[in-house]
Amino acid sequence: MKAAVMRGIRDVRIEDIPVPPLLDDEALVRIRSVGVCGSDIHYYTHGKIGRYVVQPPFLLGHECAGEVVEVGAAVRNVKPGDLVAVEPGVPCRRCRFCREGRYNLCPDVVFLATPPVDGAFAEYIAHAADFLFPLDGVSLHEGAMCEPLSTGLQAVRRSGLRMGDTVFIAGVGPIGLCALQAFRAGGAGAVYVSDLDADRCRRAVALGATQAFDASDSELAAKLRELTHGLGPDIVVETAGSEKATAQSVEMVRAGGVVVLIGLSPAAIIPIDTIAIIDKEIDIRGVFRYANTYPAALSMIRRGAVDVKSMITAEYPLDRAKQALDDVAARKPGVIKAMVVNG
Predict the structure, then answer these.
(1) Residue 136: count of CB within 10 angstroms of its CB
(2) How many other C-beta atoms can be found within 10 angstroms of the C-beta atom of residue 226?
(3) Residues 68 and 163 occupy one common structural domain
(4) Whether 130 and 196 share a structural domain
(5) 233 pLDDT band (50/70/90 cuts)?
(6) Whose CA, among 35, 144, 166, 215, lies 20 to 30 Å from 229?
(7) pTM value?
(8) pLDDT digits (tens, 9 = 90+) for 263-288
């Protein structure tokens, strides 16, 4: 089969590789849509994220949907011809975290495009059938967008959102836009956002943001306090991996508020005001992927509660996967979510 194989930093080539073998509890999925994610860009440009280091040859891509073409002997929930969203992380199902329902924290999770596990920049993948979800009227592109939307849903869950809470989201790339819509659908009151890209700010307002700000505005924290009766937002969500925005989050959030960190910063260690954290009794909560979100994500898309389709602004055939990665890495104007398509 054809695949886009990473051979080194910024080096992706189209090669022929074997079709993966199929286990009894797996389905062979012909990949039709794969979104380019920020983590793909980290691996493509840096070769690693924290302890996960690329050892070429390696396949990127984990936001995916496709068509089931074959199933293992034990599979009952999907059949050949089904169009499915692929939840990319398959846990052990036995450890404490899996039993608690927090399988995203499973130490033995097998996650697409997370070294050493290959991703979906290929014609086919073999995947655990219980982590495949029939689209039932949702498009293939929208099915692939269940992955970033799931991160937004996990952020809502981790934030402890209460009806009417005021939320500020730093960064409105694909994850930020998904988080914006998830918080809106979850009952947030005002949702303010910021970004350096004016086009992304305009898109965020079109998708429901109360107001968008230039992230470089030195008066941003003061403006947020003014809009929240001098308190600051109840919840601050950092999605861009900006060291500055992460450090500022404890200044912006109200006393007793919650800071949610999603974005991956190039620096693992960031100076932060611990006195402010203690003095304001701030909760800081990380988001690591998601768990038990795909059925909700599909339902929300199907009902029109969120709009992920409008975020897809560029398509590339599989043999131009490198160009897709380069364009997203360069933040090419107009590119919000790039989708690699196959057939």
Answers:
(1) 12
(2) 10
(3) no
(4) no
(5) very high
(6) 215
(7) 0.97
(8) 988 788 899 999 999 999 999 999 99
> What would the two tokens of residue 99 be?
């039993």
Choose among 179, 333, 327: nearest CA to 260.
179
Residue 39 resides in a domain: yes
Give residue 196's domain range: 151-286
Residue 164 and residue 116 in one domain: no
| 3 state SS for the chain | CEEEEEEECCEEEEEECCCCCCCCCEEEEEEEEEECCHHHHHHHHHCEECCEECCCCEECCCEEEEEEEEECCCCCCCCCCCEEEECCEECCCCCHHHHCCCHHHCCCCEECCECCECCCCECEEEEEHHHEEECCCCCHHHHHCHHHHHHHHHHHHHHCCCCCCCEEEECCCHHHHHHHHHHHHCCCCCEEEEECCHHHHHHHHHCCCCEEEECCCCCHHHHHHHHCCCCCCCEEEECCCCHHHHHHHHHHCCCCCEEEECCCCCCCCCCCCHHHHHHCCCEEEECCCCCCCHHHHHHHHHHCCCCCHHHEEEEEEHHHHHHHHHHHHCCCCCCCEEEEECC
> What is the pLDDT, as a whole number, of residue 156?
98
Count CB atoms within 10 A of the CB of residue 140: 23
Residue 37 belongs to some domain of the structure: yes
pLDDT of residue 343: 78
Mean of pLDDT over the chain:
97
